[in-house]
Amino acid sequence: MNMLNGYIDLRSDTVTQPTPEMREAMTRAELGDDVFGDDPTVNRLEEQAAVKLGKEAAVFVTSGTLGNLASLLTHCRRGEEVILGDQAHIFRYEAGGSSALGGIAQFQIPNNPDGTLPLDRVEAAIRGDDQHEARTKLIALENTHNRCGGTVLPLSYLKQVRELAKRHNLKVHLDGARIFNAAVALGVDVQEITQYVDSVTFCLSKGLSAPVGSVICGSPEFIAQARRYRKMLGGGMRQAGVLAAAGIVALEKMIERLAEDHVNARRLAEGLADMPGVTIDLERVQTNIIYFDLTPQVKVTGEAIAQRMLEHHIKILPGPARRFRFVTHVGVDHRDVEQVLLAFNAALKD
Length: 350
Ligand SMILES: *Cc1c(COP(=O)(O)O)cnc(C)c1O
Fold this sequence. Notes:
Elements: E1 8-9, H1 20-28, H2 40-53, E2 57-61, H3 64-75, E3 80-85, H4 89-92, H5 97-102, E4 105-109, H6 119-125, E5 135-142, H7 155-167, E6 171-175, H8 179-186, H9 191-194, E7 199-203, E8 214-218, H10 220-232, H11 241-253, H12 258-273, E9 278-279, E10 289-294, H13 302-311, E11 314-315, E12 317-318, E13 323-327, H14 334-347
Parallel strand pairs: 1-11, 3-4, 3-5, 5-6, 6-7
Antiparallel strand pairs: 2-8, 7-8, 9-10, 10-13, 12-13
Helix pairs in contact: 1-11, 2-11, 3-10, 12-14, 13-14
Bound molecules: pyridoxal-5'-phosphate.
């Protein structure tokens, strides 16, 4: 049993705790003042991240939200525009930061169910020099795509976006909070993905189990400017090596094992699909995220189901309109999956 504080916690992969090896590395980490560039452990994390993602430079930031915000601020000035999906994390869950703090306009395009943006609509959304219009500067993608079910963007699609962006002199930013889930699911090196984008942020604190932090990767000029924005936004940290040390372990030790989370998610999804009262699109269960709905035949409310699950020491988040999201991670093993299925099946009964 792999439980977190006695619970099987399916609310998110953000609930993962630092591994014993991370705690050990955090204790031993060599430290300095990172705003002065003096923290050797942060410097090492940034170098390793840049190499791994095939970019020339990287900066360690407090969160994925700050990473996306600093990236957007770097790509776009006030009155300039980013094209992104209406299901994008940047649009939905980042408190409107790039508009509030950067004056950046957002052109939202409805995401396809697989997380892609229809290319013809992206192209039609691009605006030029007309004084009536915001200037388009950036296309922002998300991979894996959280609200679309942890779906993986096909490499051929990324290539097409890259070419489109080039034709129109636009940059591409990737919200790659879970980019390693995408790489593992595709069975490719992560650089196969990042070769098509100018900048990318990824999270150390989700499936990779580090306690805090994300990394932005890009060109040296881009990262230098993003570093200024990190400071401006209050994200300059001092002896941040205690956190970066866990991030290094995350990069070195925690990526390949994401495949287990995908296997567990698949098993969980198939078990749910067999339950009367559940509708689920198995094709969209590609990584560690599972979305599903309850049919009208189920009379129990989402809240009541969550309460019943809690009595079995299982934490879930009931979404609006009885849509559920389950997320697998290192704290959920295959026996836990069977236990969840038993408990959930029972919880659906009147
Ligand atoms: C989690 C997440 C982020 C960043 O979230 P933080 O909680 O700020 O670290 C960004 N994009 C996606 C798709 C995410 O899932």
